[in-house]
Design a protein that fits this description.
4 copies of one chain form a homotetramer.
Chain A lengths: L1 E4 L5 H13 L3 E6 L4 E6 L7 H6 L4 E5 L19 E3 L2 E3 L5 E5 L6 H14 L3 E3 L17 H14 L3 E4 L6 H7 L2 E4 L7 H10 L3 E4 L6 H12 L6 E5 L15 H10 L4 E3 L1 H5 L5 H11 L3 E5 L17 H17 L12
Parallel strand pairs in A: 7-8, 7-14, 8-9, 9-10, 10-11, 11-12, 12-13
Antiparallel strand pairs in A: 1-3, 1-4, 2-3, 5-6
Chain lengths: ~350, ~350, ~350, ~350
C-alpha cells in the first residue's frame, strides 16, 4: 500500500500518518519528491481497514493498494500511457521515436557528420557517449565534458534533442546542463544513489535494463526515480546475458511486450547492444517495433570499422538510412504514426 | 572438409577415398543417405592440397571446405534458400506460413473445431500433439495413435497438412503414416538416433531448438538429418531458458535472424512456447515475422481455460483470427507474400 | 496424491480405485512397475477426504499426499537414504565411491591401462563410453559393442564394476548385457521412452542432470524410472549451462546439497564435465564431496593430450592418483568412510 | 602492455613515455595511484620492439607484456599470493578466515550479541550492513552511520575487525572512518567511480562478483582498484544468476578455483547469498573451502526468523557454532591452518 500526500501537506500531517502506522507495528518509508511525497507502507500484516482509515487523514491525497512490488510505475496505479516530453519529442503511447548516433563522441567531425546523417534519415534524437563505462580501466572512457559540448553543438545545428549517459551521482548536474535525456546504463540499473539523483533532477531519464535484471527488478529501479517525484522515465531493453555466445546479448522482446502491459511508462529497444552485430540490427529493430516498443535507440557511426568503441554493432549512415523506411512501414502496418516523417531528399 | 560422392558411386570408389584419408592419418566418417553419400573428413591436420587431390578421384562429385562445424546446412555450401514442400505448402524463402492448432489433440470435437477455425482465419497447416513429452510421469501424455487418426480426419476435411511430434525412433514409421511434417521437440534436439531416423524417413522435419542449445548446436542437429540425405528440415525457435521467470521462456529472435544468415533452411517461430502467456503471443508473433522468420507455429484452442495442457499460452480461436490480419500486414509491409490469403468472410 | 497398491493386487481392485477417481472427475495414471503398481492421482480438485477414503479400498497398500510434484523419489515418501548396489559396490548413504575411466573406450591397451591405474589408485568403478552423443555427426561416436566387450574384459581383470552410457531405448538390452550401471547422459535426461526402458530393465541407473534442467525436472526424470518399479537410481550433477564461458559448464553444488535434502537417492558429481578443464577437476571434486555428494565420476586417460574426446578435461593417471588421498582426507574429516581403502603400494 | 613508472618519477618522464606512444599512434592511459603510476598502452598495433625500447626510458621501472586483459591482478605479473592485512587478520595464501555477522545492523543488542557469539565460535571478522542496496525503494535500507558506530563498538569489545558495504563514492570517506574492510556489493561490481574511489582510499576492499559477471569482468573490476595503487583487494564469489529457481543464486565454485589460478588476490566465498537458504549454507561453506577459497563471509543472526533482511539465508548462532569445527576439519584435511583456533568453552 502507498499513501500519497497532497502537494503542500504539512510535516505534522505526515507525522500523523507515520504515527498511526507505528501503532499498527508497521513501517512507513517516507519518500519525498519535489512534486509529491509518498509514504510506502510495509510490514508483516497490514490491517484490511487501514486503506480506508488513512484516506481520511488530513493532508492525504489518496491511498492505494497495489499487488505488484512496484507501485508508482504500475498500470494498476495509472492505466493510461505516460508520454515523456524530451525537448518537444513525445515518447510513449505508441510513438515510434528513433534515437541514433555513435557509441561515443570521438571528434567534432564525427559527431556533426553523424548528427546530420541521422537527422536526414529521419531520426528524432541524437545519442552519443561522453562518459563510457568500460570493463577495462585501460580502454577509451569517453571525452567527458568536451563531448557534452559537441553534443550541444550538434543539437544546435540539427535541432535533435540529445541523449547521453551519466554514470555517477556527482556528474548528474554537469550532464543535465547539456543533455535533454539522461541515460542510466545497464551496469547502473541498480545504482540506487544514482537513480535517486536523476530522480531529483526532474529530467527525463532513459533507464536501461541490467544485463541480468528481471523485469520486476527493472520496474523497481524505475520506481526509485518516480519515488523522487520524477515521472519522466523511459525504459530501454538492450539485451540480457544468456548462455548464447553467437550474439553479444539476447534481445528479450518478451520483456518489451510484458513491460508495456505492466507499466504505463514508454519502452524503447536498443538492437545495437541487444545483438552486438550490425547485420542483426535491422531485423531486430523491426522486430522490436512490431513487439510494441515505442521506438529505438541505435548506434550509427560514419565509419564503423574505425569506431573507438562498439564498431561491430554500429550501422553505417547508409545502412541506417536504408533501415528507416522499413521501420516506418512496420509502424504504419500496425497503425502507429512515426513521430517524424522521412524528409524528401 | 566434406567429400560429396556422385549418385551411384561404387563401394570401391568410396573405399579409395577412405584409404587415402587413412594414409594422411585422417578419419573419414561415411554418412550414407538415400540420395547421396557424404564423407566427412576430420583429423588434427588436413593437408592443404587434399581438397584438390580428392576432387579428381573416381566417383567424387565435389570436395568442399567449410569454415563452420556444420556443413550441409551451411549457406557457404548452398547460398540460396531451401524451400521445403509440406504436402503442397511451401516453407522458406521468405514465406509466411502459419501453423496453428491445439497443444494436444483431446477429442474429435476439439480438433475438428480448431481445424475449421484456424483454416477459416487463414492458417496454412494444422498442429496437434499425439505423443506429448511431459516433465512429470503423472500428467496427460497424449492420445497416441487415436490422435493421429483424428488429425488425418481433420486434414481430410480442411485440406490442411498436419504437423505432430515424434518422440522416439520406434515411433517414426507410425507417425510418418499420418503426419505431413514430423516435429522434433526441444527436449529431443540432441536425440541423435531420433534425428537419424527421421533423416532416413525422408519426410519433412520441423526441428525445434533445445531449451539451452546454442545456435551452432541447433544447426549441427539439423546437420544430422541432412547427413542422412534428407534436405527437408525446417528450423523452429521456441524460446530459450534464461534467468527471467516472468515469462516461461525467452524468445530469442536474434537466433532467428542469425540462423537465416548462417543456413539456407527455413526458420519458424513458436511464440506460444516462447512466451508461455497467451497475451504475449500476438506481439511476439509479429516480432518474429518482422525479424525474418518464414512463418510461425502457434497454439490455438477453442476453450483455452479447459485445455489439458498449455492452456495459459493458447490463443482462443477469436484471438487467433484477430492476429492474422496483423501478421499479414507486417509481412506485406516488408514485401513478403503470405502463402494463403485471408478469405472473405 | 499417490495410491500404492499391494503386491499382487488384482485388476478389479485397481479398476475400483480408478472408477472412484472418475466419479470425482479426477484422472488416475496407472504406472505398473515390476515390483509395485502405483496410481498417480491428478486433477483440478482432489477432495480432502479422498486420501482416507481410498486407504480402505481392497488391494490398496497406502495412500500418500506429497507436496512435491515428484512422489516416489521424495524424502517425504521415504526419509532414509537409498543405497544402490552396483555389483557389490554400495552407493548412497554417505558413501564416497569413485568412478573413473576414459571418456570413450578407444582401444584395448587404453582401457586396460586406465582400468589398472584407477583401480590401483583406489577407484571403485570403471567408466568408459561405448556410444557417445556428439554435437556433430562428423566426430568420433564411440566403438559401440566392441567397447562394451573391452569394458567387460577390464572388469574381469580388475574386478571393477563398469558404467557406460546408453542412448536409445533399442540399445538398452545390449548395453545391459555388459554394463553394471546404465548411464543416462545429460542430453537424454528428458528422453522419457529411454527412462522408462531403463526403468523396466531393473538395472542400476546413473541419471545425469540436463544442461539446463532445474532440480525439480531432474527429480521428475528420476521419477519416471522409479515409476517403472526400478528404485536403483543414482543422480549425477555434471554442471549446468550458464553465461560463464571461462569454464565448459558451471558445477552446481547447491543442487547436490539440495537434492540430498529433497530425495533419498544417492547423488554423485562429475567434475570433469562440470568444469571442462583438468586442472579444475581436483578442487571441484573435493568441493563436491564436501558438499555432501556420495561420490564422483571422473574422466581419466593415460595420455589426455591424445584422447579422441574430452582430453582437456581428463586427468592423467598420475594426477588422478594424487587426488585420491585428498578425497579420502576430506571424506574422513567429515566422518564419512570411503568404500575402498587406498591400497598400499 | 603496461609501463610501470618508478616511485617519484617526474611529470616530464611520464610525458616522454606518452609522447613516444603518440608517435606510434598508440594511446597511453595514465593511471596515477598513491603508490605508483602506471601507463596502460593500448592501440591497434603495438610494435614488437616497444617493450624493450620503453624499458630504458628515464623514470620507467619496468615494462610488462601480459596476455590477459587484466594486468595488475594477474598471476602472470605476480606469481605469489597476495596477503591482505585487515587490522591484523591476514587474508590470502591459503588462509581460512571466517567473516560472520548479520545482513544488516538492526540494533545495539542484535549486533553485540551476534559479535560475541561469532567470536566465541571462532570467527575472525565481523560483518554487518549499514547501507543496504535493496531492489525496492520501500524496504529497509539500513541504519546508516548509526550502524557504523555500533559496528565500531562491537569491534572494541570483541576485537574483531569489521566489514561493511559502501554503495556510492561520496560515502567512502564516511565508511572508511569506521570500517576495516570496505565491501563493494555485487550490484556495484561495475560501478567504476566507486571502484576508483575505494582504490584511492588505500583501504582493504572486499569485491563481490556481480550476479552475471564473467570471471574476466570480475578481475577487470579488481584491476580498477589496483590501478589506483591499492593492492589490498579480496575477491568474493557470492553466487551467480542462472535459470535455477530452487536456490536464490548458483554458487560458482569453478570460479573460485579458476580465480585462484588466474590471480594472486585472495578469494572468499559467501554461501549465504550463494544459496539463499540457511540449510544449504553449511554444505556449500565446506565445499567452498575445499575448492580452495581463502575463507568465507557468512550471515549469522541471533533470531533469523525476525531478521529485517535475509533471514531465510542466515544461520542461527547455534548453527554457526556447529559449522565451525567442520570448516576447520576440512581446512586441516587439506593442510591449511585456520587463522584462529576455536576457543575452549
Amino acid at each position: 500500500m502507498i499513501v500519497v500526500m497532497q502537494a503542500g501537506s504539512e510535516e505534522q500531517q505526515i507525522e500523523a500518518v507515520l504515527e498511526r502506522l507505528r501503532e499498527y507495528h508497521l513501517r512507513g518509508h517516507l519518500v519525498r519528491g519535489e512534486e509529491r511525497t509518498v509514504i510506502g507502507v510495509v510490514g508483516a500484516a497490514i490491517p484490511p481497514t487501514l486503506k480506508e482509515e488513512l484516506a481520511h487523514f488530513a493532508g492525504v491525497k489518496e491511498t492505494l493498494r497495489i499487488t505488484q512490488p512496484y507501485k508508482l510505475v504500475s498500470r494498476e496505479l495509472r492505466p493510461t500511457d505516460t508520454i515523456v516530453d524530451v525537448r518537444g519529442v513525445k515518447v510513449g503511447g505508441g510513438s515510434c521515436v528513433v534515437v541514433a548516433g555513435p557509441c561515443a563522441v570521438e571528434s567534432e567531425a564525427q559527431i556533426m557528420a553523424t548528427a546530420r546523417a541521422v537527422r536526414d534519415a529521419g531520426a528524432t534524437m541524437l545519442r552519443g557517449g561522453a562518459f563510457k563505462p568500460r570493463s577495462s580501466p585501460y580502454t577509451f572512457r569517453g571525452m567527458g565534458e568536451d563531448a557534452l559540448r559537441l553534443l550541444a553543438q550538434a543539437r544546435e545545428e540539427t535541432g535533435l534533442p540529445i541523449v547521453t549517459e551519466v554514470m555517477t551521482p556527482n556528474d548528474v548536474d554537469l550532464v543535465a546542463r547539456y543533455a535533454d535525456l539522461l541515460q542510466i546504463g545497464a551496469r547502473n540499473m541498480q545504482n540506487y544513489q544514482l537513480l535517486e539523483e536523476v530522480g531529483r533532477s526532474g529530467m527525463p531519464v532513459l533507464l536501461k535494463r541490467g544485463l541480468s535484471a528481471t523485469i520486476e527488478e527493472w520496474l523497481l529501479s524505475a520506481e526509485y526515480v518516480l519515488a523522487q517525484g520524477n515521472p519522466n522515465v523511459i525504459l530501454c531493453e538492450r539485451g540480457i546475458r544468456t548462455f548464447e555466445t553467437a550474439t553479444r546479448n539476447t534481445m528479450d522482446l518478451n520483456a518489451v511486450a510484458l513491460a508495456k502491459r505492466r507499466t504505463h511508462l514508454p519502452v524503447l529497444i536498443d538492437p545495437s547492444h541487444g545483438t552486438g552485430k550490425w547485420y542483426l540490427v535491422p531485423p531486430l529493430a523491426l522486430a522490436g517495433i512490431a513487439a510494441g516498443a515505442d521506438g529505438m535507440i541505435v548506434e550509427v557511426h560514419p565509419d564503423p570499422d574505425r569506431a573507438r568503441s562498439d564498431g561491430a554493432q554500429s550501422l553505417s549512415c547508409e545502412n541506417f538510412a536504408a533501415l528507416m523506411p522499413k521501420i516506418h512501414a512496420v509502424a504504419a502496418a500496425l497503425g502507429r504514426t512515426p513521430m517524424v516523417e522521412v524528409p524528401e531528399r
